[in-house]
Amino acid sequence: MLRNGLEPWHLLILAIVVIVLFGSKKLPDTARALGKSMRILKSEAKAMKETDVQAPRTDPPA
């Protein structure tokens, strides 16, 4: 059943359903908020990687 994955007409139906549910006026705001959240997540992940590289890990004495 799910062997073929998503085909183009599946995505078209999904897009139509999303437009009908949320309305065309809210979609740009939603996309903008999603993009902003992704940028924040990316910058936080990058900061965490830089922190891990700068601070060597030390094991506590047993």
From TrEMBL:
<protein>
    <recommendedName>
        <fullName>Sec-independent protein translocase protein TatA</fullName>
    </recommendedName>
</protein>
<keyword id="KW-0812">Transmembrane</keyword>
<keyword id="KW-0472">Membrane</keyword>
<feature type="transmembrane region" description="Helical">
    <location>
        <begin position="6"/>
        <end position="24"/>
    </location>
</feature>
<comment type="subunit">
    <text>The Tat system comprises two distinct complexes: a TatABC complex, containing multiple copies of TatA, TatB and TatC subunits, and a separate TatA complex, containing only TatA subunits. Substrates initially bind to the TatABC complex, which probably triggers association of the separate TatA complex to form the active translocon.</text>
</comment>
<comment type="function">
    <text>Part of the twin-arginine translocation (Tat) system that transports large folded proteins containing a characteristic twin-arginine motif in their signal peptide across membranes. TatA could form the protein-conducting channel of the Tat system.</text>
</comment>
<dbReference type="Pfam" id="PF02416">
    <property type="entry name" value="TatA_B_E"/>
</dbReference>
<dbReference type="InterPro" id="IPR006312">
    <property type="entry name" value="TatA/E"/>
</dbReference>
<keyword id="KW-0653">Protein transport</keyword>
<keyword id="KW-1133">Transmembrane helix</keyword>
<keyword id="KW-0811">Translocation</keyword>
<dbReference type="InterPro" id="IPR003369">
    <property type="entry name" value="TatA/B/E"/>
</dbReference>
<keyword id="KW-0813">Transport</keyword>
<keyword id="KW-1003">Cell membrane</keyword>
<comment type="similarity">
    <text>Belongs to the TatA/E family.</text>
</comment>
